[in-house]
Design a protein that fits this description.
Radius of gyration: 20 Å
Low-confidence stretches: none
Number of helices: 8
Mean pLDDT: 88
Number of domains: 1
Helix content: 55-70%
Strand content: under 5%
Largest sheet: none
Order of helices and strands: HHHHHHHH
Distance between the termini: 18 Å
Shape: elongated
Length: 180
Amino acid sequence: MIQHNALPKQPRRFVSYWNVGKLLYGALVLFIIETFFYYQAFSAALHEDKLPWKLFWSSCLLFSFSHIFLVVMDSWSRFQDYKRIKDYLYLHGFDPRILSPYRGSKCQRMSLITAARELGMEKEVQRYFHKLGIRWFHFIPVFMINDPFFITKKYFWSRTFMEKHYKPKIDYRQLNTISV
């Protein structure tokens, strides 16, 4: 457990939410732009008498539009991870067993690093990932490489998009005001 007076100043919830999912929000903007582009192309194809182009542009539109919701759900899940990890790290301190389940994807690592930064443990977590050979440019989740049929698996859908709401056990901002 961390000493109260050693706790860094805690950011607002919005800032933490942003820090956890900034890569996802970038993807969200790209999917919104793509959706707009594909909608324009699909609308133009509707006026032509070429079925293959209608099918092509409609599938592109459906793909990008559905990803908007997937990215939003993924960012929600990563924020639940962040809250859970922050509690674990605060209550139990740095422990590789706590970190291990979150090393597989860049988004999960960002959740972990954000929580660790807010508790003053970022360097320990960075060293841990570096020791495992994980670098900043490792974006593709390990499960995608290990299991090419991941999209058909329940663990992928439940862990990536449907994390249950996690209510933090500790009010860190309140703790922070007590310790100051």
